[in-house]
Amino acid sequence: MPRLLARSALVLAAVAVLVFLATALLPTDAARARTGGRAGAADLAALRAELGLDRPLWTRIAGWATGLVRGDLGTSLVSGRPVADLLGARLPATLALMAAAALVAVPLLLVGAWAAGRRPRTAAPVLVAVAAVPQVVVAAGLVAVFAGALRWFPAVSFVPVSGSVWDRPSSLVLPAVALAVPAAAFGAGLLGGAVADALALPHVRAARVRGLPEPLILVRHVLPRLVPASLRVTTLVAAGMLASSALVETVFGYAGLGELLVGAVSTGDSPVVQAIAVLSGAVVVVCLAVADVAARSR
Amino acid sequence: MRLVFLAVLAVACAGGLLAPHDPAAVVGPAWAPPGAAVPLGTDALGRDVLSRVLAGGLALTLVAALATACACAVGLGWGLVAGWTGRAGTVVADVLLAVPFLVLALLFAVTLPGWAAVVVGTICGGAPLTMRVVRDLTGQARTTGYVEAALGIGESTVAVLGREVLPSIARYAVADAALRFVVALQLASALALLGFGPQPPAPDWGLMLRENLPGAALNPAGLLAPAVALAVLSLAVAIAGHGAVASPRPPRPAAGDSARAPDPGLTVTGLSVVDSAGRSLLSDFSLRVAPGEVVALVGPSGAGKTTAVRAALDALDDGAVRVAGTVRWQGEPVRPGRAARRWRRARVGFLDQDPAGTLDPRHTVARTLGADGMAVLAELGVDPSVYGPRLPHTLSGGQARRVALARALAGAPAVLVLDEPTSGLDPDAVDRVVRAIAADPDRVTVLISHDRAAVARIADRVLTIGADAAPRTAARTRSRSVHDEVLVVDGLRVRRAATVVLDGVDFRVAAGEMVAVVGESGAGKSTLLRALVGLVRPEAGEIRLGGRALPPAVRDRDRADLRAVQFLAQDPAAALNPAHTVRTALARPLRRLPRHAARAQVPGLLARVGLPPDIADRRPRGLSGGQRQRVALARALAADPAVLLADEPTAALDHATAADVLDLLDDLRDTGLAVVVATHDPAVAVRADRIVRIAAGALTDDRSEPTCVP
Prior knowledge:
The structure holds 2 protein chains of 2 kinds.
Chain A: H1 2-24, H2 27-35, H3 41-51, H4 57-70, H5 83-118, H6 123-132, H7 135-149, H8 170-199, H9 202-209, H10 214-252, H11 257-267, H12 270-296
Helix pairs in contact in A: 1-12, 2-3, 5-6, 5-8, 5-10, 5-12, 6-8, 7-8, 7-10, 8-10, 9-10, 10-11, 10-12, 11-12
Chain B: H1 2-14, H2 49-55, H3 58-85, H4 90-98, H5 101-109, H6 114-142, H7 145-152, H8 157-194, H9 205-212, H10 220-245, E1 266-274, E2 280-289, E3 294-298, H11 305-312, E4 321-329, E5 332-333, H12 338-347, E6 348-351, H13 365-379, H14 384-387, H15 397-409, E7 415-419, H16 427-438, E8 444-448, H17 452-458, E9 461-464, E10 485-496, E11 499-510, E12 514-518, H18 525-533, E13 540-545, E14 548-550, H19 559-564, E15 565-568, H20 582-587, H21 595-608, H22 625-638, E16 643-647, H23 655-670, E17 674-678, H24 682-685, E18 690-695, E19 698-701
Parallel strand pairs in B: 3-8, 3-9, 6-7, 7-8, 12-17, 12-18, 15-16, 16-17
Antiparallel strand pairs in B: 1-2, 1-4, 4-5, 10-11, 10-13, 13-14, 18-19
Helix pairs in contact in B: 1-3, 1-10, 3-6, 3-8, 4-6, 5-6, 6-8, 7-8, 8-9, 8-10, 9-10, 13-15
């Protein structure tokens, strides 16, 4: 247990360093982003000094990381507002979208995993096929058919400035489905593999030869083995949906964290990008650690 | 299927050549619906959608292919090293996998151009997954007989990884590459849609989605066409990759017929079984067993004994299907499917050929057996108070067999089907098993065994499947002069976890001598042989070969040492690399010869172990267990060893073949080969010049004549 915690902390710290290095390798971008590329060389140099970009890399990492530990995510290069405020304003919308997507994804995932485990020859290839359809295709296809041709749902899921997305639940349907279907197919493929592996274990086959009824085999020999796998798959699916929200929210014009991330990438607003990437990494590390603890305590 | 895949790939890459218009030229009004001149309509600027779709796949496919190649190369190398050394760098993998790959790619898109972000994102998000797959497969391959055999002839680590491990995992690597390509395509199209990919006016499927989203209501085809193109390319790759590892569909089973006959006991008529490729495994097998009768099935390895009983129980392994025949119990037909399952549960006790695997690894012996079974276990000579709380992996092979047998016997089943119940048991345990089988006077018992002595004691009737076994050749009387000692062991001590398995073992073998190591199952016979070959590291003691000390670990021994000591492992199933033909497997130890000369030796080696030359082109899945064991023996002989260590070399062989193999060992001993054989089979032990017994970690000379010779 202490080892697991230490390991998770180490992984999280390494994730933070990786994230910082990936975005901060070209220091000019940050200063240019702030000025929109119109400033002269002298202004840029002054701005770099003000932002601390002329300091050596390791001192910048250290400064950023100590801020992170204190809960200070830094300041947006574009708007000058604290990153934490930007994230806090967008978080409820993304959580609402994730919750709606989970309502669709979880039943699909369970049914798919069971079908793939029981019938690897027929159901598993279907899952592989569905999971292979790029998310952009699912999102664009839903827009073209249900918003473009049929006009059942709005093509743009606009969140009113005052009030919440729950005031117009229909605007959540298409983004939620676009998020859920690929994630559920991916997760069902993973979990279906675990189901098929468990069903093919020699002692499970032997139980079948001994003539035990299928439900008894499941309860006694199969399901106890699937708990850790289910927890891990849930984590991966949740993380996948969080990442895909960048795509889906942009397609539907939905003002959540993902759309914020995409906007920040295009303006080179690295503090915002770093904060969102570290946040999603932290969610994964913490959830996987919880899954590990649950797997060991069994 | 393959043609479809290639056609899709060709259109995606070279479709631009078929485009009716210049993809960048304005040919009409914006978002015009499909018409004669523009079959898929126009886009936001009035350009031809069809032409742009045809031209829009090349860059995307190339970027995805580049990303896939990089991710697979990194993951494959990483996985091979991690699986081989057991040190994985899993923290690095966890770090890379902690951030979802799309976020990673967006992160890199801050500073890198779009295509580079796709490549880096695919490597960071995909290589760890490839690494895990390859690492696990490599780890499994590491302990197989074929890898140990390659190490045993002094192959370098790189050669073992390249020649043995890589071919055996190749099809999984191909399937994995398809998954990486699909992910790379997802990334490339996502970044393009978000505006970080190719910039206008380049034709690109992802970028087209971005440009045509606002016109979804005016010209849906502008959105659907690139979406469908992306989906088709992605699906073609995914399905082709899935096909690389999927197994073929089995033929349909036949329904049992419903005719009646008033026979007591078990009646099996005209059973035929085919495998998934449609080859016949068993044809027209019939069997009648009256209550109280014990029928033994005998026959050479691969004749279909196990298939016959499993078909009768409707419990065939994956792929094999019963295509004809009926089974009746007390005159009533037992139809395949649910009826057969209920019958098995209510009436049948079954012992699998590999009983250890049938025990749930997480259930203790006591939980597996219940109270009835524990009582039976005591009768079989395994102390319930000692072994009840244990988990299956702490049991020896013989103990696990008796636990599974106790489970089969518990609850007094009316039908008992036992596949090799006495294999690997010491004589006392065999006695107990024989008594337990004979205990119920009304039971129907079907027995498969290679153990002639046991069959003679239990069976009322013997049914031979396949060609009849050749009469046994008498053990030859041998007179030989005393040669020099080739293998000298002093004070060997081996510890496994907390138990000292061997303690202070002294042991000598002379050239041309055959020493049989006997002892109860679990006494440490296999451990002794594995320590001699260097696969188990002893805690103390010295092993000398021809007067020189041998390093204790296999990887410290030089090539001549390795070749001089050859090992024949217990499990023929994992002894041969599934990816190699018999010819390749046998020619490899001969590689000091030119390639054609090495291959020319293969028929001779096969003949020495009694196999026909045409077997050289088969792969292991086309061989029976006995044939595999003989090929493994031929491979050991190809290294031209001074000492052959054999762990139960005849356990998987029928009687006639076993006698041939033992004759062969006798001939080889005349040329100076020393043989150490761990065995329970008295027919093996009787041929030995000396018998040594392992008990309580120590080795003693066994001066008594072997008893119960068949």
